[in-house]
Structure formats: structure tokens, C-alpha cells
Amino acid sequence: DETAAEGYRKMLQHPEKVVLVVDSLDTFGYDLEKESKLIGPYDKALPSTILYNIFIGNLFPGCKILSSSREHQIIKYKGRLRPQRIISLAGLTQDSIYRLTLGFMGEEEGERIYNHLKEKCPDLFLLCQTLVFLVFVLIGFSGKEGGGQFNPSTMTGVMINLLQSIIHSKHARVTDVVEE
Fold it and tell me: Which residues make beta-bridge pairs with 19?
């Protein structure tokens, strides 16, 4: 698909603008510590080899990687595989939620979203202590530009924005996934 190829080329041209989210890395089934093969951006490889090359900075150098894993699994990674920062999955602190929100959304928009969640959506803010929910919430808020109609105050509102964003996506129309 030409759209996917164009997106991949842009990721290669501007890896510093890429944020990769890898959920449940510990359930992946491969041991990244046993990998050592370096690959290029168009080489065919096993998922473990591709992830290894992304994590060590061989593919998409300078990209931001946000992964979730049980701490006892990820703690064993050494050298270039070792994450710069480990945040416990037991629950993100308010400071972590704040910093991740600003990191994903930019300073001005992140500040606005964080304050909205904290002041007007305390139940949704509590869900954000779990990383995967925080990511969904941030995507739901960013989906506002993609067709979402409002600042969500519940997880239902977040999902509505996500679905509206998908429905209004040029990808959905191009592939005839959505009927008008």
C-alpha cells in the first residue's frame, strides 16, 4: 500500500518525530538479549530482530520508545537494550502522568489536557495511572482534530473520539472500510 510506504519513508527521514508504543513486551515470546544481527530499514527479519534494532537505535535512531512490561522482566536488559527510564506498572504517579502527557502532546496541549483531566475528570485521571489507559486517553484527546467532537470526560468519550477519528480517517475512506 502506497500510503503505508510513504508513512514508513517519513518515519525513516524524521525518526526523532516517531513515538513507538510497545505494550506487554514481556509477553512477546522472544529473548531480545539473544539478538545481535543488525539489519537495514528494508531487510526482512524476525520481529525480535526488528525490535532489537529499534531498541539499540540502529533503526529509527532518536525515536522515542514507550514500552510496558513487568519490571522483573525488563530489568534484566543490559547495555544498549537497557531502557533509559523504568516506570513501575504498579501505577503511574501524577508527576509521571504529567511528564508523559507533555511528552506525547507537546507542552501547551499537554498542559491543557493534564489540567482538564485532573480538574474535570477525576475518574478518568485515575485510569491514567495505568499506562495503556493513559495512551488511549491521549489518543482520544488528540483524535479531537481527527473528527472527535469534544473533550472526553469518560472512557466512553475517549472511545467515541477514537472511533470518530478512524471513521474520518482518509485511510478508512481509501480502503472502502467505511460506507458513506
Answer: 64
**Predicted local distance difference test score (pLDDT) of residue 158:** 78
Rounded-to-integer distance, Cα 151 and Cα 160, Å: 11
CB 143 within 8 A of CB 165: yes
Give the Cα separation of 154 and 162 in Å (integer). Answer: 13
Distance from C-alpha of 164 to C-alpha of 99, rounded to nearest angstrom:
27
- How many whole angstroms separate alpha carbon 1 and alpha carbon 23? 25
59 by Cβ neighbours in 10 Å (0-12 / 13-18 / 19+) ranks as buried
For helices 131-142 and 94-105, angle between their N-to-C axes, nearest 10 degrees: 40
Contact indicator for 142, 135 with CB cutoff of 8 Å: no
Q: What whole-number distance in Å separates Cα of residue 9 and Cα of residue 25?
A: 25
Higher pLDDT, 109 or 175: 109
- Number of Cβ within a 10 Å radius of residue 105: 17
| Alpha helix segments (H runs only) across 56-169 | 71-74, 94-105, 107-120, 122-127, 131-142, 155-167
Tens-digit pLDDT profile for residues 50-83: 999 998 999 999 998 888 776 666 777 777 777 7
